[in-house]
Specification:
By secondary structure, this protein is of the alpha/beta class. It contains ten helices and 16 strands. It has a seven-stranded parallel sheet with strand order 7-6-5-8-9-10-11, with helices on both faces. This is Glycosyltransferase family 1 protein.
Length: 354
């Protein structure tokens, strides 16, 4: 018998999650498998490993289910990427083991075709992104469904599959574009690793503007052309520690990508003290997903080039005042882990005990 009491700190007040005040007897009847690509490090796989870690911490029976792309999907050696060894998650590569009526299988949207191989279990699609789903369908089925009325090519609407959504952007997509009933959709977002916890600056910051070359690089190039004097530094081919150190030194991070989900790098940059500038694509259009002041978001990057350059230079000159504009954003990011914990307990406390 274990009693879990989760204390959420929201709006500087202690709010108790009613569902977690109950004494729960976690005599688990269902095992939980979290499908993830083998030996792959990025934001999505990180979150999948975090979920497995949290589930086991809370007394559930969870393990990773590693897969590979192509013919080797059901057979893989040494699947754990070094970045995720810290979680010490148990794992399996056996789809037969997971394909059981006594199992719950969490499947990221980029591996949605796994539902055709795992049919006996209670499957949950975790929508970590939206745009990447379109890209996956385009690559696998040679079909661009972005502008089509029917985007539910896997017939998810009529199945007993449940859906987890990492962002409000994804929730809109699942409920409105796929037509999934609200009672089948559960919000389960994410949180940042402790590496990016905000700390008092111990060094003077430099007039650096950071960017991810994998995210809207054509738009970044356009802004670069407007003012060659701005020093632009790419975030690429770095260890997590190197990213932390660079963000701790810079003043600005820009992200003009498609924001397929609630992206990690803008939050990581903010937590390390950077001011964040984005476009309004994907999740960045949602206040709930990217709650930064409106003046740091731009609808059309090409038409706003001069304004963006002016803003960057103003941040350089008045960094402390601009940095304070992101205090509310940082506070919300700090609260994400406790909210994630509560949501994990609520969702899986219901389904793992059925």
């Amino acid at each position: 018998m274990k009693c879990f009491l989760v204390l959420l700190i929201l709006n500087e007040e202690f709010i108790f999650c009613k569902e977690l005040l109950k004494v729960r007897q976690f005599s688990m009847q269902k095992k939980i498998y979290i499908a993830a690509p083998a030996y792959t490090a990025s934001g999505g796989p990180e979150l999948l490993h975090q979920l497995c870690y949290k589930l086991n911490k809370f007394g559930f029976c969870a393990q990773m289910l590693y897969y590979t792309y192509g013919e080797g999907k059901k057979s893989i050696e040494n699947p754990i990427h070094p970045h995720y060894e810290v979680y010490k998650n148990p794992y399996t590569i056996s789809f037969e083991e997971a394909n059981s009526e006594e199992a719950i299988v969490i499947i990221p949207e980029l591996a949605i075709d796994l539902i055709n191989h795992i049919k006996k279990s209670q499957n949950m699609i975790w929508w970590l992104s939206v745009d990447n789903y379109y890209g996956y369908v385009d690559i696998m089925y040679k079909k661009d469904i972005r502008k089509e009325e029917n985007v539910d090519i896997f017939k998810l609407k009529d199945s007993n599959i449940l859906h987890l959504v990492q962002s409000c952007y994804a929730m809109d997509f699942v409920e409105k574009r796929l037509g999934i009933a609200k009672e089948k959709v559960y919000y389960l977002s994410d949180y940042l690793r402790k590496d990016f916890e905000v700390k008092k600056d111990i060094m003077s910051r430099k007039d650096y503007c950071l960017y991810n070359p994998q995210k809207g690089f054509d738009k970044v190039l356009h802004i670069m052309s407007k003012n060659p004097k701005i020093i632009w530094l790419p975030i690429e081919n770095m260890t997590p520690k190197q990213v932390v150190d660079l963000m701790s030194e810079a003043k600005v991070y820009v992200d003009f990508g498609n924001h397929p989900g609630k992206d990690r790098i803008p939050r990581e940059a903010a937590m390390r003290g950077c001011c964040v500038i984005t476009n309004k694509a994907g999740s960045a259009a949602y206040e709930e997903d990217v709650p930064i002041p409106e003046k740091y978001k731009f609808e059309d990057i090409y038409k706003s080039g001069e304004n963006i350059v002016y803003l960057i230079n103003d941040i350089y000159q008045n960094f402390e005042s601009h940095k304070r504009e992101f205090d509310a954003y940082r506070k919300k990011i700090e609260e994400e882990e406790s909210i994630f914990d509560a949501d994990v307990l609520k969702i899986f406390g219901e389904f793992a005990n059925e």
